[in-house]
Design brief:
alpha/beta
Amino acid sequence: MRTSSGKPFLPAAADIVFQYIFSSARSEECLLHFINAVRMSAGRPLAQKVEIRNPFNLKDYESDKKTILDIKATDEMDRTYDVEIQTANELAFPERMLYYWAQLYAGRLSSGDGYEQLRPVVSIVLTRFPLFSQLTDLHNVFNIAAEKDPKVLLTRHFEMHTLELTKPKWDRFMEQISTVPEGQRLLRNWIDFLLHSNQKTEAEMETLTCGTPGLELAYQKFVEVNSDERMRELAWAREKAARDEHGRLLFAKEEGRAEGRAEERAKSRPNGQCMIQYP
């Protein structure tokens, strides 16, 4: 898909596009149905409505190209939702996910409140990179469970979903889709939209949105953000900054490996001397 000026559309998984779709004006419907598709896929109870706590603000992105803004919302059961998409891997990323969850959980407790006032926090983290190579599924759910019997949970307040938007896991997900229930079909359509909406024709998008609650509005907002030149330029700048940062991290990692190999070779030489071999 292209804009009226002929420029290619940004994908819905680009961070500014994603944030605009799910946290700008009138986004509650999109966010509610996306959250419910994720939770339905995992057999969790659904929300009836959500309230966005940190609406989209373009100035937040203009101030810092590295700013990571989660989408925070609450539902009618007072559950808190934290939704984010991450484009580049970071050191200790799982620990970062846990830290963000813990901040939200503890933040619900005001001075003088008892622990019974704490409410569940549900994190939904989408990554555009591999996160858990040991797991073959695209969508995984983490809880705090007993080792001897995983059915016994320490608490139902902790719930973390990860969705790895990588080609191998998307391909595997699609291979399984013909035998999965309705909840998986809805999640499939949402992920297909996030990954491939900029590559589809209008007719293909019409087919995709049909029968998927909230997705038609999400598509309208996707077109809106791609039609705004200011947001497009900022989104491209952030994508470039993320790629550059990823490249720097890979370079630093490779340099570290090279230095490690050099140190190992030096240690293998007796008295630090070079080994001279004679024919």
